[in-house]
Amino acid sequence: MKTFPHFLLPKPLLTALLAAGTLAPALAQTAPTTDPALAVPPAAAPAPPAAPAAPGPLTYYGFVDAYYGFDFNHAGTNARPYFLYAHNRQNEFSVNNAILGARYDNGRVRGSVALHAGTYVSANYATEDPVLQHIYEAYAGFRPFKKAWLDLGIFASHIGFESAISKDNWTLTRSIMAENSPYYESGARFTYEVAPKLTLTGLVLNGWQNIRETNQGKALGTQIQWRPTAKVLINSSTFYGNEQPQDSLKRRRYFHNFYITYAAAQRLNLALVFDVGKQQSAGHHGYDTWHTGSAFVKYQLAEQFSTTLRGEYYYAQRGVFINGISPAPTDARFLAGGTSLNLDYLPTANVVFRIEGRYLRSENAIFQHDNGPSRNYGNLTTSIALSF
């Protein structure tokens, strides 16, 4: 085949060929590197948020209820009427109840120990051993089988709609019926959850609100709590025992507490409470009876404000229990009733500021005024309660 010298090629074609031969090595030198040391790592994926720690079996809690009360036409004393134990001081700043405690519950074993102090403790625990007066609760328990608990020690009473912790009550002060039924008990408590809406409790106790035993007998108690619907709670509690001192004639006591609560609307809640008790009279000639009732209407005014109206009465034949546990046949009966209205403000979820006005009227002149005994009694009470 005939060839041609390169100088005979067209000049444009010769220039293109020379350029291609020169660029080839250069393009080979700029190929992407595969050296790991020189490679840029990809951006790391964001770490998932840490899961919240599961609550442990041991928890701590506290409560402080500081208050100021004022009685109208009060006598020269700072004490309120003898049958009131909570918020029972007037014209002084004080602490009704301050509690600090710890609870343990791992699902199989549980227990609690808490101490308290305040004017409520001084009044309501006055007859207890000084070593035991400042125990709010101290009990230990376990599950003998599924859905059951057996506890032994000192714990809150199974009786009543109201408790010793004011923030849990619809009203600031306690009704007469709550003040004169047990706030606390000591003994053995067996609780069984029959169904999610039904719980049964049986108790063997030292007595009617006493930590130390006062005689050789034991008292019995029961409680039934039933929620037929999400809006209704029905409670029935009973007590049976002899509360006379060891050297006195036995006087058996039978008592029943009943209450029902109803969430009538989103902002409106209602409660009705009724107690009836009987105790053998002197010489066992029949029974002395007392019965008492109260009604509550609670209304949520706004997110942080609510109000509760309460009406109540208390009747005790021969003044049984409220005036003494061993009334004589000639003792006068006790009959009193009244109403109260309170306003609650919750600046945060664990603080409540409350103010309440209360009026009571009795059949006999049992209230001490600055100008002598009277059938009428009125007061104002305000409180700030903190819980944690």
Structural account:
The chain is mainly beta. The chain has one domain (58-387): Porin. The protein has helices at 11-29, 119-124, 176-179; strands spanning 58-71, 92-105, 109-117, 135-142, 148-156, 184-195, 198-205, 219-229, 232-242, 252-263, 268-280, 287-300, 305-316, 334-348, 351-362, 367-369, 372-374, 376-387. Strand 14 (334-348) and strand 15 form a beta hairpin. Residues 1-28 form the signal peptide. This is Porin. It comes from Hymenobacter nivis. Keywords: Signal.
The shape, in one word, is globular
CATH 2nd-level architecture: Beta Barrel
SS-based class: mainly beta
Question: Kindly state the mean pLDDT as a whole number?
Answer: 89
CATH fold assignment: Porin
Helix-strand topology string: HEEEHEEHEEEEEEEEEEEEE
Q: Could you give the count of β-strands?
A: 18
Q: Main β-sheet, in a few words?
A: 16 strands, antiparallel, barrel
Spans where pLDDT lies below 50 across 5 or more residues: 1-40
Radius of gyration: 37 Å
- In the CATH hierarchy, what is the superfamily? Porin
How far apart are the first and last residues' alpha carbons, in Å? Answer: 106 Å
Task: Give the spatial strand order of the biggest sheet.
Answer: 1-2-3-4-5-6-7-8-9-10-11-12-13-14-15-18
What is the helix tally? 3
